[in-house]
Design brief:
Strand order of the largest sheet: 3-2-1-4-5-6-7
Strand content: 5-15%
Number of domains: 2
Radius of gyration: 20 Å
CATH topology of the largest domain: Rossmann fold
Largest sheet: 7 strands, parallel
Distance between the termini: 21 Å
Length: 367
């Protein structure tokens, strides 16, 4: 049988968002699905271990794109994905999120005339200095089926001229994964490996260029993290690009001397385990803003804006702005009630799968 649905994934968040859709399609149909891993994330904790945690089989194709500048990475993704598409000839290409693999996959599909479905459409920070914002805008212009997870995303797409019949409110597939693995994460109790007590520590993730690429800003953030560690235990699983910056500047040793637990990247279940027990999360990640809201964990976002405003209005998220001194506001506390956000009910993947299967027709077009 020929491939009907081809998923382009490249980074950890892509896997977490795509797996609920892949599994739901499998439960509903015998259509052939193909997973193409671009290799944008290739660190084991960000790639192979995550796939294993999520129960995703080995990808059908691994493209080995690797790291590089945004232009270089996107260009190599475009070339490699195009070759895969010409060989597989899928009826629909499915991309998720806003990383370079997302745009590269969507652009490759559009160039060869294959319809595109975009999981997590319509998110907007309105900050075009963020590479992810460019990826979101362009991917949504290329997409034929736009799966959104919040009402504000629907309005964003309408303002940009996307027709209503292309917009599908399905909910948040990332929360599907969270709900599926939350109990396993709690049972793993990863916090005990670091002698931590639930609700008494701060979990930190920082990786965006705006926070880690400027040496002076990174030094100021490191100073604030060191001060935070004097008030509460701080656990910092460090993204490879962030660790490289900290190593280059000598700041990693300063954090460790201050008592910050500087860890290698964690697998999905281990990280989720720490997140479920945290008293607070300090982050610049969009997905973690969502997870924290769904878990009832207080979240402090070191950014002046967010493409996920529903986490501010209905969730537990608070924007700190771009002044590192604002980290002084962060303190752990008891876990609250999970946010009741429409569509974040653990069934978004099922709704997306229904739409994809309904769109498949014999000639490869989309209804």
């Amino acid at each position: 049988m020929s491939v009907s649905l081809l998923y382009v994934v490249g980074a950890r968040p892509n896997f977490v968002k795509a797996v609920p859709v892949i599994d739901a399609v499998c439960a509903r149909s015998e259509v052939v699905q193909c997973v193409v891993h671009t290799g944008q994330h290739y660190d084991s904790a960000l790639s192979a271990n995550v796939l294993e945690d999520l129960g995703l089989p080995k990808p059908d194709r691994f493209l080995g794109v690797g790291s590089g500048t945004h232009a270089d990475q996107t260009g190599r993704t475009l070339i490699a994905v195009e070759r895969a598409l010409l060989e597989e000839q899928p009826k629909i290409v499915v991309v998720s999120g806003d990383v370079n693999a997302t745009l590269g996959g969507a652009l490759a599909a559009a160039k060869v005339g294959i319809p595109v479905a975009h999981i997590e459409s319509g998110l907007r920070s309105r900050d075009r200095t963020m590479p992810e914002e460019i990826n979101r805008l362009l991917t949504d212009q290329l997409a034929d089926l736009l799966f959104v997870h919040s009402e504000d995303a629907v309005e964003n797409l309408r303002r940009e001229g996307v027709a209503d019949e292309q917009i599908h409110f399905v909910g948040n597939t990332m929360i599907d994964s969270l709900r599926r693995f939350e109990l396993r994460a709690l049972e793993r109790a990863a916090w005990t490996r670091f002698s931590l007590r639930p609700e008494e520590f701060v979990l930190v993730t920082l990786h965006r260029p705006s926070n880690v690429d400027d040496e002076d800003r990174l030094a100021a953030i490191a100073d604030e993290l060191a001060d935070l560690a004097s008030r509460a235990p701080v656990v910092f699983p460090i993204h490879p690009r962030t660790r490289a910056r900290l190593d280059d500047t000598g700041l990693l040793g300063r954090l460790e001397a201050a008592g910050v637990a500087c860890l290698e990247p964690l697998g999905y279940i281990d990280f989720l385990s720490l997140e479920t027990a945290a008293g607070a999360v300090l982050t610049d990640s969009g997905g973690i803003q969502e997870e924290a809201s769904a878990l009832g964990i207080r979240c402090f976002t070191l950014r002046p804006n967010t493409e996920r405003p529903v986490t501010l209005t209905l969730g537990t998220n608070r924007l700190l702005g771009d002044d590192p001194a604002s980290i002084r506001q962060v303190m752990p506390g008891p876990r609250g009630a999970a946010a009741e956000i429409p569509g974040w009910d653990g069934h978004a993947g099922e709704r997306a799968a229904d739409i994809l299967l309904a769109a498949l027709v014999d000639d490869g077009t989309v209804r």
